[in-house]
Amino acid sequence: MFRPPLWGNFIAYADEDFLTFGLLAVNGLLSQAFYHGTQAIEKYLKALALSIVDPGGTFATPETENWIRTHNLGTLAKRCTSIDIFYSQTENLTVLQRFAEFDQFTRYPWVEQIHGNGFSGGDIEHFGRIILKVRNDLPIIRDDYSLGMEVRGHFHLSKKNTLLGTIIIIMLLWHYENFSRILTILFVGKC
User: For residue 96, what are the contacts with CB-CB under 8 A and spacing of at least 6?
Assistant: First the structure.
């Protein structure tokens, strides 16, 4: 019997946040969408960092890995540099710091903004680029998580078979006006 890795729990929740991000962005609720986007990035980064510490996903949990309690996206990204230098590049860390600030700003309006003067639909491209990279770097053997199933419509295909569908969703998020139509195709199966 196949048992998913313990760090897979983060993927499951991140997929739900990412899908929520898309639905909210399509309907013009960008503040709420960006909150879920930052939550998705945080959870994907935690899954990737845990998969580095415990590739089989058998022992590393938030209880054994105290660092996992951080919400700092830059700190989490730096833990993933052994996978790719993408996670230590200044451009990406700067974007992650802006998003981390936004995560706090949406929940606590009194937080002073240091890294940006707000966010716009143009930031959707950054969310898509980062989420695509992190999710595709995860060592998923069988993608039965929410996003994988929404893309292909059923269980039990490998990550390699869902890569194209994931790329399609990300590309459409970059042009979120079209995302509503795509979600209809994904969820209902009609054009």
Answer: 41, 73, 74, 77, 130
Cβ-contact 184, 53 below 8 angstroms: no
Distance of CA 124 to the CA centre of its chain: 12
Q: Is the pLDDT assigned to residue 52 strictly greater than 80?
A: yes
Global pTM exceeds 0.85 = no
Q: Which CATH number fits the domain 8-141, given the four candidates 1.10.260, 1.10.1660, 1.10.287, 1.20.120?
A: 1.20.120
